[in-house]
Specification:
Number of strands: 17
Helix content: 10-25%
Structural class: alpha+beta
Strand content: 25-35%
Strand order of the largest sheet: 12-13-15-14-16-17
Order of helices and strands: EEEEEEEHEEEEHEHEHEEEE
Largest sheet: 6 strands, mixed
Length: about 290
C-alpha cells in the first residue's frame, strides 16, 4: 500500500535452493527492484524456481495505490468505478490532533475491486472494507478503503502474542474502516471524528470457533467481559513495552433486547498515545449506558 509518487523497493528473499525472477520491468537496487508508485493498482509477478527441479511456480504481489474520489453535496461518489457509492461527507471542524490524518486520508482511497486479495498472512482486503447501510442500494463490485497499514502490522503482532500464550484462536475484525455514511448511521459508540473513518482503528474479537462472538477464554461456560479483559491487558502491556505502537484500547459490552447474544469487542487504534476505556451499551443505544473500569 503506497501513496502515488512514493519511491519503493521490492526485495524478494528466496528460500534455500530457490531462485526468484521478476516478470515485470523495474530498475535494480541492490538485491531488490526500485519503482515509483503510480495512480493505479499494479500487479508484480515473480517466478520461483527450485534447484534440481524443472518445475516453477509463480506468485503475485499487488501494489495498491490510493486514488482521489469526488463526491457531490450529499456524499455520493460522482465518477469512476465508485460512481453512485454512498460515501458520505467527512465532518468539518476536525480537532487538531486528528487534522494531519484527516488531510491525508479523507479524499484519497484504495479502490477495492477484488476483496479476496490477501494483504497479510492472516488478513484479506475484505476484512477492512467498510460495511454499508442495509437501506443503501449499492450493487457494484468496487468499494472504497482507507487504511493505515500500521494497523495491519499491529493486528498481526497482537494475534501472534496471544497465540503464543497457548490459545488457538485468531483475530477477527468486527468493525473495520467506516465510511462517513456508515459511521453516521446512529449506531452505538460511533464518535463524530472516529478514527475508523481514517483507516486507523478497528474493533476485534478473538475466536477459534469461527463465529462473531469472542471465545470463552477462561472456560467457565460463559462468554463475558472476563474473557475479553486478558486480551485487552495483553495489548496494553505490548504498547507499554514498545512491541506495538501506542494507541487507544477500548472494551465494549453490547446487550441486545431482540434475542441476539451479548457481544464483547476490543477497539484498538493508532492515536500515538495509550488511552483505555470501557463502555456498556444496552439495546443498541447510541450513548453508553455505563462505563466499564479495567
Amino acid at each position: 500500500l503506497a501513496w502515488p509518487g512514493k519511491r519503493i523497493t521490492v526485495t524478494p528473499v528466496p528460500a534455500s535452493g530457490e531462485k526468484i525472477t521478476p516478470l515485470f520491468r523495474a530498475a535494480r537496487s541492490g538485491r531488490g527492484y526500485r519503482m515509483s508508485a503510480t495512480g493505479a493498482m499494479r500487479e508484480l509477478r515473480f517466478r520461483i524456481a527450485r534447484s534440481g527441479s524443472r518445475a516453477t511456480t509463480e506468485t503475485t504481489l499487488w501494489l495498491m495505490i490510493p486514488e482521489p474520489i469526488r463526491v457531490d453535496t450529499s456524499g455520493i461518489v460522482t465518477k469512476g468505478p465508485l460512481a453512485g457509492y454512498p460515501l458520505g461527507l467527512y465532518p468539518e471542524g476536525v480537532p487538531e490532533r486528528y487534522r494531519a490524518r484527516a488531510r491525508a486520508l479523507s479524499s484519497r482511497f484504495y479502490i477495492v475491486t477484488d476483496s479476496s486479495l490477501r494483504i497479510a498472512p492472516g488478513f484479506a482486503l475484505r476484512d477492512f472494507v467498510s460495511k454499508i447501510r442495509p437501506e443503501r442500494n449499492w450493487t457494484g463490485r468496487a468499494h472504497p478503503l482507507s487504511l493505515d497499514y500500521g494497523l495491519v502490522n499491529m493486528l498481526e503482532k497482537i494475534e501472534s502474542a496471544w497465540r503464543a500464550t497457548g490459545y488457538p484462536g485468531r483475530v477477527r475484525i468486527e468493525s473495520p474502516f467506516r465510511t462517513p455514511d456508515y459511521n453516521n448511521a446512529g449506531a452505538a459508540g460511533r464518535a463524530t471524528f472516529s478514527q475508523h473513518m481514517y483507516g486507523s482503528a478497528c474493533d476485534i474479537i478473538f475466536t477459534a470457533e469461527h463465529d462473531r462472538l469472542h471465545d470463552d477464554v477462561d472456560g467457565d461456560g460463559d462468554r463475558d467481559m472476563e474473557d475479553l479483559l486478558p486480551l485487552a491487558r495483553k495489548i496494553e502491556s505490548m504498547m507499554k513495552a514498545g512491541e506495538i505502537p501506542k494507541g487507544g484500547i477500548g472494551v465494549y459490552h453490547y446487550i441486545h433486547r431482540d434475542g441476539r447474544a451479548e457481544e464483547f469487542t476490543i477497539h484498538v487504534d493508532l492515536r500515538g498515545r495509550i488511552g483505555k476505556w470501557g463502555s456498556l451499551y444496552d439495546s443498541d443505544t447510541v450513548k453508553a449506558a455505563a462505563d466499564i473500569d479495567w
